[in-house]
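Obj.: predict assembly geometry.
Materials: sequence records (below).
Method: joint structure prediction, all chains together.
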Amino acid sequence: MIQVAIMGHGVVGSGVCSILTTHKKKLYSAIGEEVYIKRILDLREFPDSPLADRFTKEFNDILTDVEIRVVAEVMGGIHPAYEFTAQLLKSGKSVVTSNKELVATHGAELLAIAKENNANYLFEASVGGGIPILRPMNQCLVANNVHEVAGILNGTTNFILTKMIDDGMEFDDALKLAQELGFAERNPAADVEGHDACRKICILASLASGKHVYPKGIHTEGITNISLNDVKYASSFNSVIKLIGDVKFLENGKLDIFVAPMIVNRHSQLANIDNEFNGIMVRGDCTDDVVFYGKGAGSLPTASAVVADIIDCCKHLKARKYLFWADSNNENVLPYNESVTAVYLRFSTNDKEASIAEVKDLFGDIVQLSITNESENEFAVVTKAMTIGEINDKLNQVKKSKLLSNIRIADL
Ligand code: HSE
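Observations (raw structure tokens):
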């Protein structure tokens, strides 16, 4: 029997308990031993739980119990998850987590502590929920030089955008619905402002580059400014708007990394990933595009990945899994101004003809978009590719109209 503990009994933690209980036989057959939940840490009371006698409010009950070999940290947030994880790893226990905020902020340090103490720190559930992505990237795709990883990494925003695109629903109503369905973070700002997706693309970039990429300073835009008119103009361009986390590994060693809404052509695999689903495209030099698709949020999908990591730790109690990246100070991150892209621009104006002429003069070749019932006071164009710095310089020179939207065109 291998004894484990779970820290946190929220959406993911209760899912982990549920899978470990209901899939006992299946898991036994995977490792030839029973996985026994010895302790569950939570400050709340769960008197009706069938595991009520195993709950504790004391972290030390887990830390000092030498029989507990593997701990799932599914509390979320940085504190006290960071301190607890560091202490557990130092005591030689392996830790698995779905906590993307912690991995994105302290991953390099916690991986180093795990290595020093011959323990494992695994976090498959931190990106893409139930979608296997970190292990495939680290193992199955290891022969490739990866050029780019791009994905729809946040279920809440993808759900909201899908409702806006398919049902013409307003942003606020779609967000409310996502919260009711339990996809959203405790604070939905982390979802709608892109921070959750940023943490996830940073984890993917760290894994692919072997150096920690910290979210601080990474260009991060959310979807709060996307309007139904943007959705319509995108549709007229045979495209949909998706919130994309993207990292390109440039030949000069720099990482062109950002999170932003993007206009994605309907032919792209990522354009067809809807509702709360996530999709991640890995572009390798041997494989070409490989796409991973599935549920990126929710109790059981996320818990499925946490339990798989528990099982992996149980299989490797005496050996280390090779999952590691070095620390860095983001020195390899390309300044956002140097990122190259075409953009969709929407303007308001009192003189459409003169405004379009001005935008043409500044940007050169542009494609003008049109939608049915277009307002006399609005127009939208798509520019050719140039750096963000050049785009901003040109936009600063626009005098005859007011910029309403500025969205990157994806090449995915
Ligand atoms: N709030 C996140 C999402 C949960 O919507 O994708 C999973 O990380």
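Conclusions so far: DSSP finds 14 helices and 18 strands in the chain.
To do: check interface contacts against the pulldown list.
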